């Protein structure tokens, strides 16, 4: 199980067990696509991370859950980006293992265009995610989940 009380709804209601919550939600709603994404930002001497789980009903929107945490400042961009990928994978794998429901997408805040610095880890991140059997969506697609994670990590 992922850390207790780490995920919340946007009304700040804490979720005791995210895997049970996802399983119950999917039992009560049809055709749910689960998406996971993480973003981070350095502020002062800390790195702030946020992971979002979107329980998406195509054509009807998403019910989003999030967690936010911080660590000592990660000064190496590529390490911070791979930490984001690792957090998303950990969340997706925990959901899959505890519920039997596999998230469909892992969204990454990494650009596939070589003009951008985040591209240095694009192949490694994409290969890691796809190697685990998830579909990966990246920055140029404007994925919902990393957009939400960015908004949360900025303190909203």
Radius of gyration, whole Å: 15 Å
> How much β-strand is present in the residues?
25-35%
Give the proportion of residues in helices: 25-40%
Mean pLDDT: 90
Query: What is the count of helical runs?
Result: 4
Termini Cα gap: 26 Å
Order of helices and strands: EEHEEEHEHEH
CATH domain class:
Alpha Beta
Provide an overview of this structure.
It is a single chain. The protein is an alpha/beta fold. The protein has one domain: Nucleotidyltransferase, domain 5, CATH 3.30.420. It has four helices and seven strands. Helix 1 packs across helix 2. The longest helix is centred in the middle third of the chain and has 23 residues. The model has no long low-confidence stretch (mean pLDDT 90).
Compact description:
With about 160 residues, this protein is α/β, with parallel strands linked by helices. About 35% of the residues lie in helices and about 30% in strands. The relative contact order is 0.20.
Short key terms for the protein model shown above:
156 residues, alpha/beta, Nucleotidyltransferase, domain 5, 5-stranded mixed beta sheet, two-stranded antiparallel ribbon, 4 helices, 7 strands
């Amino acid at each position: 199980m992922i850390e207790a009380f780490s995920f919340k709804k946007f009304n700040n209601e804490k979720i005791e067990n995210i895997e049970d919550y996802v399983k119950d939600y999917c039992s009560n709603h049809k055709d749910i696509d689960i998406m996971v994404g993480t973003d981070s930002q350095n502020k002062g001497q800390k790195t702030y991370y946020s992971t979002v789980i979107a329980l998406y009903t195509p054509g009807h929107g998403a019910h989003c859950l999030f967690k936010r945490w911080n660590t000592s400042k990660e000064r190496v961009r590529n390490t911070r980006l791979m930490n984001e990928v690792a957090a998303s994978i950990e969340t997706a794998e925990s959901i899959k293992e505890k519920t039997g429901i596999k998230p469909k997408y892992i969204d990454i805040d990494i650009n596939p265009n070589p003009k951008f610095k985040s591209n240095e880890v694009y192949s490694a991140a994409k290969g890691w995610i796809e190697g685990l059997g998830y579909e990966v969506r990246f920055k140029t697609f404007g994925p919902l989940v990393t957009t939400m994670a960015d908004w949360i990590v900025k303190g909203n």
